[in-house]
Amino acid sequence: MINLLSNLKIQVPDKIFIKDPESSKLGKRIIEHGIMLIDEIGFDSFTFKKLGAKIGSNESSIYRYFENKHMFLLYMTSWYWAWIEYQMVFATHSIVDKDDRLIKAIEIVTREINEDVAFTHIDEVALNRIVINEYSKSYLTKEVDTENKEGFFMVYKRLVTRIKDMILAINPKYSYASTLASTIIEGALHQHFLKDHFKSITDCGKTVTPSEFFISITMKSIKS
After folding, report:
1. Segment holding 207, helix H or strand E
2. Is pLDDT above 80 for 111?
3. Which of 70, 144, 177, 200 is deepest in the core (most CB within 10 A)?
4. What's this model's pTM, rounded to 2 decimal places?
């Protein structure tokens, strides 16, 4: 199974990058060490110059793959959501019961992240921390509408749509399926942030997981 999954390529919208980093050893090193560096110093302090120094390459070599660090963040977050989507589809495709299918999907998008041995150049645990801390910076920009039209957020939107469809499969008359689906995904990021940094304002922690919370409110909402 591991050998089979090692041939899987997570698809990121090709307009995000100039050259596909998955196409070369240097590109994979840029991704691997870029994740490590942003996880270490944060996106605001991250520069291609610092990344170049970390991988022992010229800054200009990174610009052959990405126009700027904003596009680099878009690439990493798109890869993350595509990876989550792949896990969700893989885990739910054989589940017949509609309730169980939705519950499993919510578990996948809200749970603690473990390393995936199928992608050796990407630390998914570190990438998850980046998405929790930095994802909003990829779309809270003046260019968001233009980038949305270019398809930069298509993977994230597709993931939301998959969950929305599972909600409607249980209750076709539920009026807030898209809102609830996007709230599950965004809310999970926020609750993971709160439990790590602002413990006094969340019930999520050692005894309650974000998954348990979102499964509870989702099933109660669509069944009421």
Report:
1. none
2. yes
3. 177
4. 0.94
